[in-house]
Amino acid sequence: MAEKQQNPIEPEPKLKIYFLPNLFTAANLFCGFVALTKIVEADLTPTADGVVNYVPITQALLFILLACIFDLFDGRIARMAGVESPFGREFDSLADLVSFGVAPAFLVHRVVLPEVFGQNAALGWFIASIYLVAGAFRLARFNCLATMAGTGGGKEFLGFPIPAAAGLVSSLTLMMIHLDKAGYAPTKWKYALPVVLLFLSAMMVSTVKYPTFKKFDLKATSTFWKTMGAALLVGSIVVLRERIVYIVMPILFTAYLLYGFVRPRISRKMQREIEDDESEDEEADDAASNLPHR
């Protein structure tokens, strides 16, 4: 009688943790923690001259914006190296929730909302919590869609990305502090931030689609004007480094926010020129097959 064939024991799947992309994600999380530390340590009590020391708050805002830069590159490095993993996606979401959810919400609650709502402090932290919950919902939805076949890793974000929302909140706050110090800010400027916070909360959980710019090709040969534009942008940052953050950053994040509304109303050709998400061969195949653009 033939012996029964024993099934070989299958090795347990190993968790893949790639060094460089997760290092950028860890840097993102570190910046979020430092931003929270600066916000907690800030003493916003006016001096005898009525001057408020906004230096720690400014440092916190810059760390949030720096976290945006790290977040911009961690996923791209993983895709370029072909080392995307479920661990990296989950780690990135946890870091994003701290740097772009908790830190901006606590920042606005600490700096702006107490002066706006006065004795009604509960309304202030409630608005900040709405932003945080909406950001967590947006990240959870993104991770769920990424694990579903045919929905994740595409060319579009569903809802306004939370790093862009945090960048807009931070850059606007930084601009308002700068204008306030220079004596140019209107007396009621702080009332705009709670409205912006609620609007961004709604946009993060909305179904408005935004390009991911994941397909930007660093080896492309037809990017002369984009290269010129990037060179001019870098040059302007060097020359106007003391003003670029206060002026250009809010404009860039606001333009990205508004692009989600304009995008469905422009031609697919213009979308491709702006987003640079398809090669010429893919465009030809798309036109030949008459398939709808994702």
Q: What is Rg?
A: 22 Å
Ends apart, CA distance between termini: 60 Å
- In terms of DSSP E residues, the strand content is under 5%
Shape estimate: globular
Fraction of residues in helices?
Answer: 55-70%
Q: What is the topology, as strand order, of the major beta sheet?
A: 1-2
Contiguous low-pLDDT stretches (5 residues minimum) are 278-294
Mean pLDDT: 78
Please provide a brief summary of the model.
The chain has 294 residues and is mainly alpha-helical.
What does it look like?
This protein is an all-alpha fold and 294 residues long. It has 11 helices and 2 strands. Helix 6 packs across helix 9 (241-262) and helix 8 (224-239) packs across helix 9 (241-262). The longest helix has 27 residues, at 55-81. The N and C termini lie far apart (60 Å). Residues 278-294 have low confidence and may be disordered.
